């Protein structure tokens, strides 16, 4: 497929060289390019298909990098990357040494800020806009916020602090609501009127003139503003935005690129922060994504000729195993509730929702609320399970400590996408949960295969009480780990060799690498035993005793090094009197890539080859 207009865009600003009547065709080429490219590499699809015209219009009217564009969440920045000269990089999107799936200033000075979590970009944009004011720098700051972000509280904290930043434009990318037909023409007319610079001049001059009238001027201004707000309440239902200091405009058609460009040009001169309400269709241009945008939000490589509905035929994964098991447990336990934060399908809780609708809660992009809401349920005798990706649990750390752990409430935290996560890079790694749960005394379990996940999830629902966490990897189980089955023990010796003076210890998905390393060591005539933990914290009873006889212990984990389970085990061994050599392989969080998991493991020295090399080096040094 050829893209004659898109191929003319090689650098930032090139889109401005196209004729206005070329823009609809350009948008169509971008949309087809994204469908073809993302179907090959994987990535975020629906969200990017929905913002093509809006992004083109912004690039036509702004001067980057003097002007700044921020994307809330950040995964909808693909068109922005195409318009800033990175089209060739899409062949390796989200792959090692390729371009990121999120904004990244290391790639381009047109990327303002690293962003991968939702509802945070407005606060950042306000800071950047305020910095421009302090430094007397020209330029607009535009932040694109999806309607999903408005289910999180942080966006409102930002709105409450916009002050009078007349260099800030907030664009609500509304891909759920439609323009109401009965007020559509009036909305269009008033939108055109209110985006005309003459309107702003007249408004400012009128208020200045009235303010100068002694005694009655200020009262007249308040009366006029009150009348204006009553009219807009009836038409737009938008006074909340205006009362927070915004000039509200919209709703407008987010797929009319020519109209959007004209409107944004009219907004070059502004007297207050602007709130522009744009209505788009998520997944636009791909029929299956239009009909089911949630399922095509983020995809692996897909065959465009044989698209299926993942909800109807889900691939086996830790998430679907967790979700289906929890739904079964809900049949026997009427107190069991399931909570997620805008990730019903991603966490597998769609199974629970279908089976127990009245006990399922999707609270939106509001992880803090999810945890405190669970605390409220638990305080009244219910058994809530909060299923959230590891990277997003970080957002609710205070609530975990203050609202759940202080009272030791019966909340089970289901930590999805734990450990190293492919594709999304530094913004989405699940490497911190073992540290922050264990630091506050919350038990943590890490099943390595589906059988263990079903067993320990059942135990944690039926028998365990108080705050507790179960973590599991993204994707499916690995054959080497599946073969281990489930013993029901909190730790197991999974490889045994007579006379071994070396022990390899790990948990979860990383246990695959110590099994492979054990085989490699055998080839070098080094006998090593392997241990796999399921309960990470508190350390399993008897573990230190089992490890006392070894001269060298290597602990490997796909979690952060500082505060890691490995560090805790090393300390416990020393306290028990062990005086051998302890090697710790864990994640260095200052160097995170977007790559696949094997590449991430190699980069972090967590692959079998690196583990083997470290053991061999120390065996040679100590003559073991």
Describe this structure in words.
- This protein is an alpha/beta fold and about 625 residues long.
- It has 25 helices and 19 strands.
- The radius of gyration is 28 Å and the shape is globular.
- Residues about 175-185 and about 310-315 have low confidence and may be disordered.
Care to give the gist of this entry?
This protein has 624 residues and is an alpha/beta fold. It has 25 helices and 19 strands.
Task: List its traits.
single chain, alpha/beta, globular, 624 residues, five-stranded parallel sheet
How are the SSEs ordered, and which strands pair?
Layout: H1 23-41, E1 43-44, H2 46-49, H3 52-61, E2 68-71, H4 78-82, H5 121-134, E3 141-146, H6 154-159, E4 168-174, H7 181-195, H8 197-211, H9 217-236, H10 239-243, E5 247-253, H11 257-266, E6 274-279, H12 287-291, E7 298-299, H13 318-332, E8 336-340, H14 350-355, E9 360-362, H15 367-379, E10 383-389, H16 390-393, H17 397-405, E11 412-416, H18 433-439, E12 444-445, H19 450-462, E13 468-471, H20 479-482, E14 491-495, E15 502-507, H21 511-523, E16 528-533, E17 535-537, H22 543-547, E18 552-560, H23 565-575, E19 581-587, H24 597-603, H25 608-622
Parallel strand pairs: 2-3, 3-4, 4-6, 5-6, 8-9, 8-10, 10-11, 11-13, 12-13, 15-16, 15-18, 18-19
Antiparallel strand pairs: 1-7, 12-17, 14-16
Helix pairs in contact: 3-11, 8-9, 13-19, 15-17, 21-25
